[in-house]
Amino acid sequence: MPKFDDLKQRCLDDWQAYCQHEFIRQLGGGTLGRECFRHYLEQDYLFLVHFARAYGLAVYKSRDIVDLRRGLESLKAIVDVEMGLHIKYCASWGISEGALMALPEARATMAYTRYVLDAGNRGDLLDLHVALAPCLIGYAEIATWLMAEASTVHEGNPYASWIAMYASREFQDAAAGERSWLDERLAAVSPKRFDELVVIFRDATRLEIDFWQMGLDRRF
Fold this sequence. Notes:
By secondary structure, the protein is mostly helical. The protein has a single domain (about 5-215), classed as Up-down Bundle (Heme Oxygenase, Chain A), CATH 1.20.910. It is built from eleven helices and no strands.
């Protein structure tokens, strides 16, 4: 029976390139350029807007009340909590809410978010969750890796609060819940269907790599 770890194993090189990207390594070491991080923060706000749309689509795609409630709770968490926290965090970097709302989308932002929405529109709820998995589960794994990595600087690192946010019990529990949901659904799919989901997962992971690179290069 396939599980989420089998998805990762089938895309291991891409997964490691994403979770240990140079952007992440520099962030952990505290050497990442401030303008690179600022550019990432700005585009991540735009990503969150589309992330919320994706969970709105998850509500629509749900076929039972349990999944519908799950999608609705995620949507509300993003719109009512996470976006507010992100705006507050951006303010600490001198980025106003008005500036965030007026931002142009980088090509990497457009490519990734539209891919997720397209995967959900073309497919079913599982397709959508697999396309979203590199973000939610990936960020949890990245934070765990950074916390354990010997080269990570914890004292005086301007990005320490970012690491702590994704290493928090609340975020880790949310990622674990998503992994459990995926494990249950993946266990019921055929080998052919699993191969289709591998393609979605690999594409989404590669687009996450591009998102880090966009921040590192400060690219639009």
